[in-house]
Records
---
Amino acid sequence: MHSKISDAADAEEPSADVEALLADVEAPLSDTARDAVKIVISGGFGVGKTTFVRAVSEIDPLTTEAVMTEKGVGVDDVAGVEGKSATTVAFDFGRISVTERIVTYLFGAPGQSRFRFLWDNLFLGAWGAVVLVDTRRLEDSFPVIDHLERKGMPFIVAHNRFDDSPDHTLDAIRGALDLADGIPLVACDARSHTSGKDVLVALLDHLHTLSAAQEAAS
Amino acid sequence: MMRWDVHEQPDRLFAATGGRSRAYTEFDLVSLVVSESEPAVGMAPEAVQILRLCRHPMALVEVSARLRMPVGVVAILLSDLLAEGRISVRHPSSGAGGGGPSASWGAAAAPARLPDTGLVREVLVALKNL
C-alpha cells in the first residue's frame, strides 16, 4: 500500500492524501482538552485486550509502532558496553474523553514476558493498569502482575468471562493468582461497553483510595 | 489492522527527519499537540499533515498512528514544528512514574508516583457519569 512510488507522488501533490486523512478522524478531541491520562490494559495473548479497548473507546482502536530501547543486563554492563538494544514494537490504543479538559488514552500491552521492555515504555507516566485474566490460562498473567507489583504501579485484575470459561469464584481466582488483599479483582465482559467502563471505574476507585491514603500520610 | 513498517521506507523517514534518529525527550506518548498556524507553501508534506490533523488537540501517539509513521519520527517532526512556533503542546500533568513535561519516551521507568487525589476524583466521577 505505502510503496515508495506512491509516496513520491504524495510528496508532489499532498492535498488529496491529506483530505483523506482528515476525513478519517472521527470524534476529534474538544479544543478545551488539556490533559491526557494514560491507562494500560494488559494480559496474556488472546485474553481480550483489543476487544476491551474497542468496547470502551470513542474511536476505532488505532495501531502504531515505536522503537523501544531496553537496557542490557549482565555481561554487557560488566564489560562497560552501553548495553542497550532497540526493537520496533507495534501496539494499539483507543481513547475516551472524560471531561472537557481530560482525555484518557487506553493502551493495549501484551502480557508475555518477552514484551517486558514494552511495559517499561508504556507504563511510563501511566496512572495505572488493568490486567485481564482468562481462567483457562491464568498463568499467562503472572509475568505482568509480577512486573506491576515490583514497579509499584497501581493495578486491578479483571476476569474476562468467556462463554466456555470454567465457573470459578473470584475468591478462587484471587487464591490462584496469589493476589494481595488490597488489589481489587472484578469480573467483566470485555465485549461490553458498560462492563468495560465499570472496570475502569474500579481502577479509578482503587487509585483514589491509594492517592487519598498517601495524601493523608504526608 | 494498520501496520506500517519503518524498514519498508527508510528513505522516506530519512528525508522526513533530516537523517536524525535520536528520540526527543520533551514529548510523552499522550502529549496533546495543537496547531498554531496554517500550513504554508513549501512545507514538507508531513508537516502539512500534522498541522491539519492537529487543528483540534491530538496526542502524539494518535498523530503517529494516523500518519502511519513511527512515534519517534513524529516526535522529531513535532519538536521542529514546536521550535518554529507552528504548534503548541499540552503535556500530561501527572502520573505514576512521572508523566510531566520532563517525561521521556524510551527512558527507563521511574518509581511509581500517584496522581493528585482531586484529579483522580474528577476523572472517577466523570467516568461514572458517562
---
Amino acid sequence: MAFNELPFEKPINELKKMINEMRSAADAELPSGKAKIARLEKKLSALIESTYKNLSAWDIVMISRHPQRPYAMDYINNIGDNFIELHGDRGFKDDTALIGGLLEVGGIKLMVIGQEKGRGTDEKIYRNFGMAHPEGYRKALRLMKMAEKFKLPVLCLIDTSGAYPGLGAEERGQAEAIARNLREMSVLRTPSVSIVIGEGGSGGALGIGVTDRILMLQYSTYSVISPEGCASILFRDASKAETSAKSLKLTSSDLIHFGIIDRIIEEPIGGAHNNPHEIFASVKSALIEELGALMKLPPNILTKKRFNKFRKMGVYNE
Amino acid sequence: MGWFSRKNKPVKADNSPVDINKEVWRKCDNCGEIIWLKTLIETEYVCGKCGYHFRLTFSEKIRFILDEDSFRELFATVGTEDPLDFKDSLPYKKRIAKAESQNNQRSAFICGEGRIDGKDVAIGFLNFEFMGGSLGSAEGEKIARLIEHAIENRRPVIIVSSSGGARMQESIFSLMQMAKTSAALALLDREGLPYISILLDPTTGGVTASFAMLGDINIAEPNALICFAGPRVIQQTIKQELPEGFQKSEFLLEHGMIDMIVKRKDFKSTLSKLLEYLNGN
C-alpha cells in the first residue's frame, strides 16, 4: 500500500493504521479504550475532510494518475454489459492503447472508445501507457462512423498523458489522425459524450473529445500540456511542475468555471480509487442521464449545437 | 603538452552583432553570412552559402502569394486576452504587450481577402514572430471568422502556417481552438469550397494536429520542419539518434502527409493553377 501512497495520504494512512492497532489492543473493549478509538476516528474523519477540501492542483494531478485509479477497461466492465471489443483501423494495425467496442449501459446500446493505461508492468507496456498511435485515432474514427451508421450514441473515456511522440507515430501522421478526428467528430450525426476519467493530456485527449457533452471526474485533469512539459518549456526548469499545475488551471472546478466542461462527476472521499464501486455507479447514472437527453434531439440539431458549443470557446477582446 | 598550450587567450571571431542596414543587407541566421537583399530575393530567401531558408516576414509572404496590393485585412481588431492570469518567467500580459508592440498586431494571425492572378481568396497567415505563431483564443477566433467569411462570400480558403503549436499560456482555451478551427473547416468542406494549407518552417504541435493538416491540398516549402511532437521530445522518448531529414518536408511527402513541395517563387503560379481546378468547371 505504501508504494501507491500519495504524499498527502500519508498522515491519513498513519492514523488509520493507529486506529486498527488500537482495535486489536488489550483495552479495545474497555470503556477507556473505546473512548480513545472514538476520539481518533473523529480526528480521522476531520483530517480526511480537511485534506480533501484543500487539495492543491498538483495533488489533483497525482490523484488523476494514481496507479489504483479505475481505468477505461474497469469502467467498461463495471458500468455496462455484453461488451464486444472491435479491433483495428483497417489500415495498419490494432492500437492496444485505445480500446473500442459495443456496450450496453442501463439498456442503452452504444459505441465505447477508451484510452487504457494498463495496470502492472506487462500490461502497461502492452497498452503503451495509454498513449495512442495514429492507428488508435483512426480506429476510434472508424468506430464512431459505424456508430453514426447504426444510430448508436458514442461514449469516449479520456485517460492519456498524450498522443505517443515517437518515430512511427510521426511517420504515419499523428497530427493528421488527430486533426481529422476533430473535424469529423464535430459533424458526427449521432449523440456523443466524453468523460475525462483521469488525465486529459492535450491533443491526444481532444482527439476523442469533440463531443456534445464533456464530463470530468472530480479529480481528473484536462490541459494543453502536462505540468512537467509546461515546466520544462516555459519555466525552463523541470522541477517547477507543481507551479505549472497551478498556472495551467487544469482541474474540473477550473474548467466548469470557464464553461469548457458541462458537468463534474463527484468522486468518493479520497478519490475514485478509494471506492471504485461508488464511482462506477455515479458515472453510470450521469451517462444515462446525459444520453437520455441527447438521444431526444434530431441529428441536425445535435450537430448545430455541438458546433456552437466549440465555436464559443475562447477568450479574446475586440 | 604544455609546450603547445597558448599563453594568450585564443583568437576568437568577432561575434558581436553587426550593425547592418536591413533594407540593403541581411545576415544569415544559420552561418552568419551577410547577403545583399537583392541577391536574397533572387534566391527566394535561401542562403547561397549554407542553404538556410530564411523565415519570411509577413510582407514577403504576401509578395510570394498574392497579386500586388490586393490584400485587404479583416478582423484586425480581435486581440489577445489573458483568461488564466498566467505567469511563467514573465507574466503573459507582458509577453502579449511585447509581441503587440514588436509586430504592430493584436494576434499572431493576420487574415483577409486577396487575389491570386485575379482570383479572389480568403487568406490568413500565422506570424511566427508573434509568440512563435502559437494558436490562442484570438487566433482561433480569427480563423473561424475567416472560414465563415469565406462561406458567406463563396471564396476558397488559404491558410499559411508557421507555428510552435498551441499557446501554453491559454491552456484549455488554446487546446479548444484546435476543435473550433477544425469544426469550422468541416462546415467549409460541406459547402464544397476549397481549402489549401501551406506549411512553412516550422509548423508543429496543435497547429499541425488541427487546421494545418486538413487541407484539400497540403503544400510545404522545401526543408521545413513539420511535425506533431518536436524532434527534441521524440529523442527524449526513444533515446536514439533521429534519422537524417526526419520530419522535414521531403520526409512528409514520402510518407504521404502532403501533396507537394513547392519552392517559394512558384507559390503563386501553383496556387493559381490549383484554384482553377478546384473552382470546378
---
Amino acid sequence: MNAADAAQATTPGLADHLSAFVRDVNAHPAMAKLLKGWEPRLTIETLDADERFHLRVDDCKVRAVAADGAADEHAILIRGERAVLCEVFTGISNPAQAYLEGTLEVFGDDRDHIKLDAICLVLWGI
Amino acid sequence: MGRDLLHYVAISAGMALAASCYTMLGGLLGIVDGPWVVLAVVLAGTFCVLVSTSVGELAAMFPSAPGIRTYLRAAFGNHFSLAVLFLYLAMVALAAGVEGTVVAGALAGAFPALPADAVVPGLFVLVVALNILGLEAPRTFQLVVTATLLAATLWVGVSAFAPDAPIAQPRQLATAGLPSVIDLAAAVGAATFLFMGFEWVTPLGRNPAAYRRLIPLSMIVAIAVLALIYGVFAAALDARLDHRLVAADPTPQITLGVLLFGEKGRYAMAAVCLMAMLTSFNAGLMGASRLAYGLAREGLLPAWVARIDLRTGVPFNAVASIGCLSCVLTMVVMTTGAYRLAGLAVAAIVCLVYAALMGAVLRLRRCRPDAARSFRNPLPRPAQWLVAACLPLLALSALLSLPQAGWGPLLLVTFLAAGAALAAALAIRRKDNRLPLARKQGVAP
C-alpha cells in the first residue's frame, strides 16, 4: 500500500459522508416541512470512481436503500467527481455553485433541483 | 426512444411558440416582399439548426447544467457569462412585453368591451401567483397545448390555400422583386425571433444518455417543425392579405382568421394567442426565475431572491421579481406601442447570444480539447466560425430594418448590453466584497 492508498483508506469515503448526511437530514427539525410530499429515489453516482449509492425519501425521512434495478416514477440522478460529491454532501461546497459550474450534474425537474439545494441550505446555510 | 424524442421536441418547440411570433411574421413583410419572407424564415431556421448543433455539444459537455450561464462561463469566464445572462434575462422580460401587447390587441379585437390593457397584466399576475403557489400544469397538458397551437397555426395557414379561400387584397406581384442582401439579412435576423427558446430543452434531459443524441436531435426537429409551420403561415399572410397592411398590423393572425373563418376565426385565433401567451410566459417565468435563483445562490444577486417556500420548493421572490419586471415592461411596451422595436431588439439579442454560444464551442475545443463530449457538432470549424460571425451581422441588419424607428432598436440593444455588463461587474464586485466579510465573521464562503 503506497502513501496515497493509505491516506485514502483512513479518510472517510463518500459512503461515510452520505451516511452522515442522511443522519443530519433526519435529525434536523426543519426538514419535515421541506421533505413533506416529496418522495423521490436519489441515485448518487461518481464519474471517476465507479461508485453508486441509492437513497430514498419517504415520509419526510431519508434512508439508504439497495439498488433493485426497478424503474422509479420519481427518480433523480446526481453525478459528479468523487471529490465534488464529497464536498457537496459535507457542506464544504455550495451545490448551487457546483451545479452552475457544471461539476455537479442533477437529472430531475426544476423543483427537484431546488429541493436538493434547499436541503443543503437548511443544513449548512451555504 | 420515440416517445422521449417527442417529449423533448414538444418542450423545445413549446418554448419557441408565442403569440408575438405571428406579429413578427407580419412584420417581415415590411422588410422583404412576399415569397422572400418564407425564404427568410427557412434561412433563420437553418441558422438556428446550426446553432443547435453547437448548443448540443455544449449540453453534452455539461449535461443538466443551466444553459448559457454554465456554457459561457466555462468558455469566456465569469464576467462575460454573467453579462450575457443579464442581457438574456432582460430579453425574456422584453419578449413578455411584446407578447402582452400582441395579446392585448387580439383580446381587444375579439372582445371590445374587455379592458384588454388591464386584463393582460392581470393574467400575468395570475400566472405569477399560480407559480408562487407551486401549482404546475401536468406535463401532458403542456404537451397537448403545444401540439394544439402548432396544429391550429398549420390549419389556418393551409386553409388560406384552399381554392375558395377569400382574398382581402389581390397580391401585388409587381412588388415582389428581388430583395437586397441587406434587407434579406435583416429579415433573417428578425425571423430568428421565431425560434427563440429552442435551446431551453438542454437542462431538462432525463438522463445522461439523452445528451448523446436525443437532445441535439430534438432541437433540430423542433426548429424544422417550426420553420415549416411558420413558413406556411407566412405564405398564407402573403397570399391572402395586403402585405403593406399586414406589416403594420400587430395581430395579423386575427385578420387572417377573420378573413378565412369570419367571426369564429377571430375568437379562435384570439384563443390561440391567449394560450400561446400563457404557455410562453409561464415557461419564460419558470426558466428565468430559476436562473435568478441560481445567481442569488451564487451570491451574485441579493440573498432574498433565493428565498424559497420550504413546502413547495418555489423560489417565490425570484418568481415575483421576474414577474414584476415582465409586467412593468409589458406596460411600457403597451403604452408606447413600441412592440415592433422591442421585437427587433429581442431578435437581435437572440442572434448575439447564439453567436456567443457558437463561439463557446470553438473556444472550449481549444482550451478543453480532452473534455468528454458525448455529442460533437459535425460542422467543420471554418463553417462554425462563419455562422458565428454572420449572426451579429444579422442582428445589426435586423436592428436597422425599421425605417420609422431609426437608430432606436440599435440604441435600445446597446443600452441593454451596457447595462448588463455594468450589472455583471457590480454583482461580481458585490460578491467579492462580501467574501472577506463572511470569512471574518466565520461564515463559510
---
Amino acid sequence: MEAKKEAPVKQEVKKQAAPAPKQAPAAATVGGKKEQPRIGVFICHCGTNIAGSIDIKEVEAYAKTIPNVAHADNYQYICSTPGQKKITDAIKEHKLTGTVVAACSPRLHEPTFRTATKEGGLNQFRFEMANIREQNSWVHMHDPEGATAKAKDAIRIAVAKASLLQDLTPKTVPVERAALVVGAGVAGMQAALDLAAAGIKTYLVEKSPSIGGRMSQLDKTFPTLDCSQCILTPKMVDVGRSPNIELMTYSDVEAVEGYIGNFDVTIRKKAHGVLTMPEAEAKGISGGGCNGCGDCEPVCPVIKPNEFEMGMKPRKAIYIYHPQVVPLLYTIDWDSCIKCGLCVTACGDKKAIDLEQKDEFVKIKVGTAILAIGFDLFPVENKKEWGYKRFENVITSLEFERLICASGPTSGHLIRPSDGETPKRVAFVLCAGSRDNTGIGKPYCSRFCCMYSLKHAHQIYEKIPGVQSYLFYMDIRSFGKMYEEFYYRIQDEGAKFIRGRVANILEDPATKNLHVYTDDTLLNRPVDMEVDLVVLASAVEPSWDTTRTRKLFGVSCSMDGWLLEAHPKLNPCGTTTAGVFLAGVCQGPKDIPDAVASAEGAASAASIPIHKGEVELEPYFAQCIEEKCAGCGMCVNLCPFTALALVEKDGRQVMEVTEAKCKGCGTCGGFCPGGAIWMNHFATPQIVAQIDAFLLGGEQ
Amino acid sequence: MEATHKYAFFLGCIAPNRYPGIESSAIKTSRKLGIELVDLKGASCCPAPGAFGSIDLNVWYAMAARNVVLAEQMKTDIALICNGCYKSIWEVNHKLKKNKDLRDAVNEVLKEIDMEFKGTVNVYHLAELLFDPKICGVEKIRASVTNPLKGTRIAVHYGCHLLKPRKERTWVAPGIGETENPMWMEEMVAALGAEPVQYRNKMQCCGAGGGVRGYDIVHSLDITNEKMINLMEVKADALTEVCPFCQLQFDRGQIEIQEKFGVTYGLPVLHYNELLGLAQGMSPQELGLDLHGISCEPFLQKVL
C-alpha cells in the first residue's frame, strides 16, 4: 500500500512500485472443496502492435511475481495456432485452474482463447482477458513506460478475477422453426424469400395495403437503368406465391414477448373492410371475395390524394394504390369513408365489402425476427430557404420519380406543377437536408441521392429534347460498381455540375420560374441560375413508426435514429437483442444493391439459430440467492429486458430469472439492497477482487 | 390602460436623431398596450455592431456592457426598437452572461467608471414584446386599433440582425425564431387592418448593415435597389420594418438611388411603431412623418 502511493510516472519509481500482492485472494471453490488457484498468464506481442510500446519481458517477469500465477509466457501472436497451443499445453503441464491472456479486446479474440482454454481441459469460463492493445498500447504508443506500467496493472487485475472464476455451463434453448420479417419493401421481401427458400416458415408483415415499398415507387434504377417495377414485380409475385411465406399486409406488430428461439408476437391485422376470396369462402360466401375487379372504385364519392403517387393523383375512399399491387385487394380508408354503401351495391354477389369489419389480432410464434422497416423522406419543407411547399415548381425527388414514370399521374411526362408546361431547365439540388449541421437537416450522407440525381438528369435528356440540367452538389459520391462510369456518362450527356450548397431558392412571382442561388466553389463566384423546375434530392430519415417498432423488439438506435447494429463492421445485421436482425435502410441509408445484400445477410443470420434448432446462451445470468431475497420486487421494474419476475416459493415472494431473457447487464445485481442477486461471471467478490487488485496492488 | 410591463427604453441613435416619430410612437403606442417604456438615462450609442464590432470587439463589448449596466442599476429589462441596437445590446448581454473570461475582461474596463456587469437583466426588441402573447400579442394589438389601415398593401422587411445568426438567438415568444421565411410581422401588420404582401427575396439585406453603407455607398444602394425592384413588382403601398437603420437605407436611399442611378420609386417606408401609431389614431404630425425623405402622403391618403 505504501509502495503504491509513490507509484506513478517515473520508471525507477515504478519498478519498485509495481506492487507484489502480499496475500493471495480467496480461493475459488470447486464442488465445495477449496482449490488453490493456479493461473497461467500469456502475453501477446501482436507483432509490434503491443510489443512496440510495451516491454513484454518486463511485464512477464512482473506477472510471475503475482500471487496465484503458476506460469507466465509470451508469444508473437497468441491467437495463432502455435500461440493457442501454448495455452492448452500449459494448462496440462502446470495444472492451471485458470488462464489470462493479455492481448487485444475480448470482442476480437475472447472466443478464440476460450476455445483454447477448453481444449486444455478447463471450463471455458475459467478464462479472463486483459486488454493491453486497444486500451493501452494503441493509445499510449508515445509513452512506453506508462504503457508498460498500465499493462502490469491490467494483468494483475485479470489474475485477481481469474483466481475466483467458476465453472459455468452455457444454457441451450430450443428454437421455433419460423421467422418474422417486418416490412415488405425490397429488403424485407428478399429476406423473406431467402428464409422461405431455406425451408423456414416466414411471416411477412407489412403496414401498408401492398408490398414493394419505396422501390415500387421508382421509375428506373441506377446505373443499369432497369425499370424498377419490372425487376421488382417478379419478387412481389414470388412472395405472394411462396408456400412458406405467410403475407400479412395492412398489419402492424402490436406486441412482442419472449426471447431468441421463442418470440410470441401479436400482429394487428387492420380492417381492410374488404374480404379476400379465402376469407369470403370461410364465411360461406361461395365464389365471393375481392377479385380486384375495381367495380367499387368508380361509384365511391370520396376523393383523396393517392399517397403512393405522392398525392399527385386522386384515389377513392376504397382504393388500391396502382394496378400492379400485391396482393390485389381493395382497402377502405376509414378516415374518409362515409359508409354510403354504394360500393357494397356495386360489388354485388361477390359480397366482398364489409363496412363493419374490425381489426383482428393474430398471435404467432417465431424463433427469429428481421426488421426491414425502411425509411421516409426528410420533410424538406423544414429547410425553408428552398421553398418546398411554398413554390409550386420545387418538387422532391420522389415526386420526380412518379412524374417521370410511365404509370405515374402524368403518364411519364415531366411537367411543371404550376402550369403543366414541360420544363426546359431543371435544377437538381443534392444533399437537400443531408450532410447538414444546422440542426434542421440530417448530419449524415443519405448515400443514394447522388446516384439517383445523376439518373434523373439522364432521364430528362432521354425524354425532353433541348433540356438542360444543372446539378448543384457538394461532392458526387459514386462509390458503387459501375457508378463512377455512370457519372462520366451523365457528364457526357451534357449535365452541368455546379459545386456549391444551394443557399436560397426564390420564385419569380410572374413566371413561377425559380432562381437558384449558390456559390460556385470551383470558380469562386456567386451563382444566380434561373430554372423552370427544381428537384430537391431530399435526405432520408427512419420511417415514422421506427421508434415504436424498435422498442417492441428491444432494439436500440444510434444518435441519428437509424437502428443500431451489433457491430458496425463485423456484425452489421445483428442487434444487441439476440434473435433480432436488421435488413435494408432501417439500419442506415442504402441503395438497392446494398439493401438486398444486407437482407440476404440478415436472412442467413436469422436462419442459423433455426437450422441449429437450439441456441446457446452465455451463462452470464443473474441468479437469485433465495435465502437473501426479501421479495421487494425493485429489480423486476429495473430490468430492461423483462427477465425478472416475482414468484411464490415456500409461502413467500422471491425473484425468479428467466435465464434466456437475461442479458447479464447487472442492473439488478448492482441495485439489490439485500445483495441477493449473484451475477454469473461478474459476481461481487470477483469485481471486488479486481478493484482491490488495482487499488491495493493485490492486498485484500 | 394600466401599464403592467415596464422596460428601460434604449433609444439608439438613428431613431431620436433622424426619425423622432419612431421614438414617440413607440412610447405612446406601447402605453396603450400595457407596456411602459421608461428613460434609460445616460445611455450611449449601442455601439453600432458593424462600425465598432468590425474594428475593435473589446470597445464594442465594453460600450454595450455599459448600457446594460445602466439598466441593471434600474433593475429593469431593456426594450429597444432597432435591429442594430439589438445585435449589440442583446448579443453582448448574452455573451457576457455565458462567458466568464469575457465578463471579467469587460468588468476590468468598467471598473474605471465604477461599474460592474452582473448579468441581471434581459434585452428585448419591442417588436418581439408586442408579438409575445404573454406580454401583448397580436389580439391585443388588433383590439387597440381605432383607425384600421384598410385597403393598403404593406410589405415587411425583417432586417438581418434581429433574427440572425439563428444559432445564437434564443427567442422566448413562439414563432419568432424562423429565419428563412418568417411570417410573424405579417400577422402584426394584418392586425392593423392592412394586407401584408409577399415579395421576391424578402429576407435580403437592406444594404446598409455591417458597415456597407459607410464603406461603399454605391454597392450598398445596389442592394437596396434590387430590393426596391422586388417591392415594386408586387405593388406595395408601403414598406414596414422594425429597424431605423433599415428605414434610413430604404427612405433616404431612394433619394440617393434617384441621384446615382436615376430611378424613382417613391415607396413610403414606415417603422412598425409608426404604422401602429397611425392605426391607433396618432396624427402624421405627432409621428413626424413629414421628416421622412420619401413622402408618406400617397399612403396617408389611403388610410386617413
